[in-house]
Amino acid sequence: MDNDDTIKARRISAPPVVASTSEALKAPGPIPPASFYGSGSTKNPPPLPSRPKNVGSSHTKLQAPSTPPPNYHSLDASPFREPQLVEEDLIGEDRVPDPIPADDTQTNAWANTTNNAEGTWQPSTDNWGNGESTWSTLWDGNTNWSGAYGSDNAGALSSSKLVNIDGRSLEEEENWWDASVREKNRRPGPGILPPVLAELLHNTDHSLFSVSVSPPDLKPSQSPQPSQAAQGTPEAPPTVTPPTADELTHSIPHANVYYCRKHNGWVFLQWKSSSILPPIAKSFQSGHPFPDQHSRRRTNSCVGDAEQPFGAVNKTHHFHLYEKAVDARKLNPPFVRAEWERAAQMKQKRRRITSINMGDVDVLSDAMRTEDKMDEDVPQDEEEDLLDLYVCCQCSVYCIASDIIPGVIPSKYVEDFTRDRLNNPPPGKKGEESVMAGWETLVTIVQKKLWKGENRSLTIGGKAFQSKIGWNPTVRTIFEDCLGFRLVTLDGPNGAGEPSISPPGTDPGSAMRTKWLRFWVEASAWLVDYQRRFPTALKQYVSQPLWVKIDNAREMYQMAIGAHPDQIPRGSAPHSLQTYEPIRGAWKALGLTPTTYTWELLAFAYMAQCRCDPYHTPAYFTHFYSIVKAMQDLGDIPPHELQNIVMEERTRGRFTDEDLLNASKALGFGQDGPLSVEFEDDVPDEFIMQAWRDTIRRAWRDPQDGPQRQRDANDGFRIIAESRGSAQLRKLWSDSTKNQMDPSRAYSLLEIPQETEDEMLLTVYGMRAKEQPSQLDKMREALATIAEVRDSARLRRFLESGIDPGDLVPPMRADLPRGLNQLGNTCYLNSLLQYFYTIKDLRDAVAPMANTDVKALEEEKFSDDELQRHRVGGRLVTRREILRSKKFVSQLADLFWQMEYCDTAAITPTMDLAKLALVTSRDEEDEEADRGGTDSSNDTDATLVEDGPARLSQADSTNSVLGKRLRDDPKPIEMDVDSPTSPASVVGEGGFVMVSKPSSPRRSKSPRLLADGSGSGSKVSQINSGVSDDTEMQDSSKAVVAETRKTPPSSTRKPTVSSDSVMMFGKQHDVSECMDNCMFQIEIALLKFDGLNGVEDKDSSIVKRLFYGKIRQRLTPIAEERRSRLSVHEKEDLFSNLPVNVAENGFDIYDGLSGYFDDVVEYEGSKAKMEVTLVDLPPLLQIQLQRVQFNRETLQPYKSQAYVRFGETIYMDRFLDSADPRKKMKSKALQAELNAHRERLRLLTQDKHAPFIDALDHTLGFLAKQEGIVLPEVNEDFVAQLNSEQDLVKAEIEELRSSIARLKEELEAVWKDDRNVPYELTSVFIHRGSSPSWGHYFFYSRHLPENPDAWFKYNDSEVSEVPKDDVLADTTGSTANPYLLVFARKGTDVVQTVKRFDPMSLEEIDA
Question: What is the DSSP letter of 941?
Answer without folding.
Answer: G
